[in-house]
Amino acid sequence: MKRTHNNGELRIQNVNEPVTLIGWVAKRRNFGSLVFIDLRDREGITQLVFDERLTDAISEVRNEYVLSVNGTVVERKDKNPKLATGDIEIAVTDVKIINSAKTTPIIIADETDALEDTRLKYRYLDLRRKPLQQNLILRHRVAMITRNYLSDQGFIEVETPILCKSTPEGARDYLVPSRISEGTFYALPQSPQLYKQLLMISGMEKYFQIARCFRDEDLRADRQPEFTQIDIEMSFVEEEDVWEMTEGLMRKIFREIKGIDLEPFLRLPYEECMAKYGSDKPDLRFDMECHNISEVFRNTEFKLFAQILEQGGIVQALAVKQGATRFSRKELDQLQEYVKVYGAKALAYLKYGEDGISGSVAKVLSDEEKAAIQTALQVENGDLVFMIADQMHTAQTALGALRQKLGHQLELIDENAYRFLWVTNFPMFEYSAEEERYVAAHHPFTAPNEEDVDKLMNDPKHCYSRAYDLVVNGYELLSGSIRIHDQELQEKVFEAIGMSMEEAHNKFGFFLDAFQYGTPPHGGVGIGLERLVMLLANTDNIRDVVAFPKTASAADLMSDAPSPVYEQQLDELHLKLK
Ligand code: ASP
Q: Which of 118, 430, 455, 522 could crosslink 200 through cysteines, CB 3.0-4.6 Å?
């Protein structure tokens, strides 16, 4: 029997039509001589009615059996407004049981209380649930909009190798041993970074790829060992060109999927972003800015602050509008504990109440200082001020974390808003205490700011780059940069991160060679597809938007990967287990 309609499609207008439907049994109810079955497929659910002529034929039918039926569309007496097909049902005239099903280990329903491990083990059943199907369909739509948008703009989709030479993005590589060439390994790409730059040298001008990337990291909740990037690279461009193209793509996706016209994208240089929000991916759905109010305490008698300032630290503060009476003693203690997680030693606060100023440091600060804080933060009666005195990075990030927490706790966040922000001018390097050297903050192919080239060797700490991130609602959606297109400069950057020319040539000789044959200026982005779909699907769980995800310990519970292999396989690969 070939189906005439899907299970989400029939309406009152179809009454009296003969139809053939196929699907899974979602529910069965017996009513004396009548049996009702909800038949489900990807598009929806349709109610079937079997009378006494057919009840024997379906006596064994249970949930998740696969059926096909012929019948006639009839109007329902008890309509179900919750169902798209709720006005009608099918009076079945004949039925074929295509397949039976064992009782499923998880219930196939929109809501589930099954353990995530069980859901992952039976992922193919979990994927029968509508919310997950919707997520995969959403992901498909985002990919299609992206392909169409970029193709219309003259971008060419090019696939790059999965078996390749290690591409440095700062994570550990997954390695694949070579059978043919004993003792050598391929790496799985952490991103197609080198290839996309080589494609610019090849003259492709505008490249994109919906690319799988692999990083062998200890997984955080929102990471997977393999993930997908919308990877884009363009020649003859500057930052503005890349941003304009990216904004256009985001606007199109949000318009088509959410029906929203996005507000203008904001921009902030990294240092300013850290100073104001204590994060390089701030949530701008609420205001509450942080301020450096160290000046207020230049001559303070308060020993603790004085000491920290002397040691080069700062006092970072934020005001909570009408916050003076919003927190119990216990809640304030909890906030103390919270900032300690971010390395701050203490959280000071002042309440500017109707009957004077109180709070943890009210007694130790002078009246002038309290007044100066009030001016610096534009404090009004009823406001609460939080302060953290520490080294700059700690003070900024701990107060930034507190800001984010308060945003949630005080319900300041507009859950329906999307606030996009370009964070620009990232530092070129980060100091790695572990390796006792500077490492590339983005990746070593990122161009330094033109005016900072001299600082590459002399003053790496203050050397800034042409890297940028696009941030939305507290998440990093993409990063990218304008690249180095000059071999000499590229070598200098390797030198600055302590890589000898020999090592550089060993690792990327092919890449450096290519630079000698006329490299165009170029730049691009890598957009996290999962992150984007998570945002559109309103979920914080990356596994909700991946068909066959792995657990936090990088295991696939369904197939049992990774798993041991046969001795013979190891032999062929010239490997021996330790
Ligand atoms: N390859 C970079 C990344 O994965 C993105 C880029 O610079 O285009 O973060």
A: 522
